[in-house]
Specification:
The complex is a heterodimer of chains A (106) and B (290). Chain A has 106 residues and is of the alpha+beta class. Helices cover 25% and strands 11% of the residues of chain A. A six-stranded antiparallel beta sheet of chain B has the order 7-8-9-15-14-11. The chains are: A alpha+beta (106), B alpha+beta (290). The interface between A and B is medium-sized, with 25 and 24 residues.
Chain lengths: 106, 290
């Protein structure tokens, strides 16, 4: 399956739920043991989280983790060899709640 | 007059075949016994006319045949179907078939009073379709940006920053995606529902959708248990495009802790402002400058 990408869905919010996006460690991790560089995930991601690196050993990297939409995991489903993983959702939510409190405290 | 648990009958009202004519006749018999009757044609164009009856009564849908136009109409408007009958099936029980002519045969007419009584006593469909109705008419606020117009409901909905909504009524909620998702993704061609019974925590996937352009998960704004999925949406995913907030609902859940979920969500006014900003930012990013 192919998805046209780089469309109007491209978002990189500076904050997510009131927390600076940079403080939320949500993005895919590539297991290079499994990745076969089919590039389906990069083809799919409309937000441009991945970047291809011609001529390098790791020909695909998560170059823009801040572009990844928090709690979105759709790219992992495009991955045949199951090489993409995400942080634990519950832990991430707990972290966001704590950070929100910090933001509110000043 | 609207009165609690009064029967509200929505017949298929088919004009051109016997099964449809029978459904209409049955509805009229029931109305003589005190039920309210909804004209499907008028309901289609002016649903508000029947708002009072639908809010307080129990909906009985009478389909003529398997096409199920009356059920479809009810589902498209998010009505909770309490009881349901299909004329062709009732006929089958009597070893009869419905004719092509809209004139009702004599022997069939004779059966109708007994059927009317039976329908009055019909057991309610189990809770799978939800204990609440979600029938109230939704009104919207709109804003325009460039050539796009975005709609956000005025009240009763809660949003996360993944552009998914929860329409909350009592202990239940319906979930779906916002007008923004619908417009960004363009033509929705596929809806994969979650399993009924699935336990959702906040931000879990409550099904997924695919458009001609992209794919995305419906990220649940609330925690709860899936009690129903919108079967109509599986058949016609484009309902998300035509009516993302009402007929395009995806999943119904029994809420488990809305009090605490709510603290992390935007209400309608909050989402309206959020979306306004988001659209502006995105436009700038895409086209740069002004």
């Amino acid at each position: 399956m192919r998805f046209r990408s780089r469309g109007w869905l491209k978002v990189s919010e500076e904050t997510f739920m009131g927390v600076p996006r940079g403080k939320i460690p949500w993005c895919p991790a590539i297991d290079y043991e499994k990745c076969d560089y089919c590039m389906e995930c990069d083809e799919f991601c409309p937000h441009g989280a991945f970047e291809r690196r011609e001529g390098e050993e790791k020909r695909l990297v998560v170059a823009h983790p801040e572009n990844c939409v928090v709690f979105c995991r759709v790219c992992a489903r495009t991955c045949g060899p199951d090489a993409l993983s995400f942080p634990d959702k519950t832990e991430t939510l707990e972290l966001i709640k704590r950070l929100r409190e910090d933001e509110q405290d000043g | 007059m609207a009165e609690k648990n009064r029967l509200v009958v929505l017949p298929c009202n088919g004009m051109d075949k016997e099964a449809g004519a029978i459904s209409r006749e049955l509805a009229l018999l029931l109305s003589e016994k005190g039920a309210d009757v909804i004209c499907p044609v008028l309901y289609q164009s002016k649903p508000k006319r029947y708002q009072k009856e639908l809010e307080s009564g129990k909906l009985l849908v009478i389909d003529g045949c398997k096409t199920g136009c009356a059920s479809k109409l009810a589902r498209e408007h998010g009505l909770k179907i309490a009881k349901k009958a299909t004329i062709k099936e009732l006929l089958k029980e009597e070893n009869l078939k419905s004719g092509k002519s809209p004139v009702i045969g004599k022997e069939k007419l004779g059966l109708l009073p007994a059927w009317a009584e039976r329908l009055e006593e019909l057991e309610d469909i189990a809770a799978e379709e939800g204990g609440t109705c979600f029938t109230a008419t939704v009104s919207f606020r709109r804003f325009a940006f460039d050539k796009f117009i975005f709609k956000v409901p005025e009240a009763g909905y809660f949003f996360n920053e993944n552009d998914c909504w929860a329409r909350v009524e009592g202990e239940r909620a319906r979930l779906g995606v916002s007008d923004y998702v619908q417009q960004s993704a363009s033509d929705i061609i596929f809806f994969e529902p979650p399993e009924v019974g699935k336990e959702l925590s906040m931000f879990d996937e409550a099904g997924s959708i695919e458009s001609t352009k992209t794919a995305l998960d419906i990220i649940s704004p609330v925690s709860g248990t899936v009690t129903a999925v919108n079967g109509e949406l599986v058949e016609a995913p484009e309902l998300i495009n035509s009516d993302p907030y009402v007929a395009g609902w995806a999943v119904e859940v029994e809420l488990s802790d809305f009090e605490s979920d709510r603290e992390l969500l935007m209400d309608c006014a909050g989402y309206f402002d959020y979306l306004n900003e988001k659209v502006k930012k995105e436009y700038m990013k895409r086209y740069g400058g002004k």
